[in-house]
Amino acid sequence: MIHRVDDRLREEARRYRLVFACPDCVSFDPEGGGCSLGFPNEMHRDPSLEARDEVVFCKAFELG
Ligand code: SF4
Fold it and tell me: Would the CB of 37 count as within 6 Å of ligand 1?
């Protein structure tokens, strides 16, 4: 799911410590950088919202 990133989302992400990217997902393989479920994850790996105007959420994200 593609979601627009604006200052409000950045502020709420900081305030509520929102996590959504692969490094915080139970299925992330930190050694290889891949997804243990086999999903292509290049667009889900970066947790920073600062230098982007949209984010692609992974529907299979599960907090690790
Ligand atoms: S399930 Fe999605 S968020 Fe989790 S590691 Fe795989 S691609 Fe990343």
Answer: yes
pLDDT in tens, 22-46: 999 999 999 999 999 999 999 999 9
Q: Is the CB of 55 under 6 A from ligand 1?
A: no
Specify the residue with its C-alpha closest to ligand 1, atom 6: 35
Evaluate: CB of 39 within 6 angstroms of ligand 1. yes
Q: What is the 3-state secondary structure (H, E, C) of the chain?
A: CEEECCHHHHHHHHHHCCCCCHHHECCECCCCCCECCCCCCHHHCCCCCCCCCEEECCCCCCEC
pTM over 0.85: yes
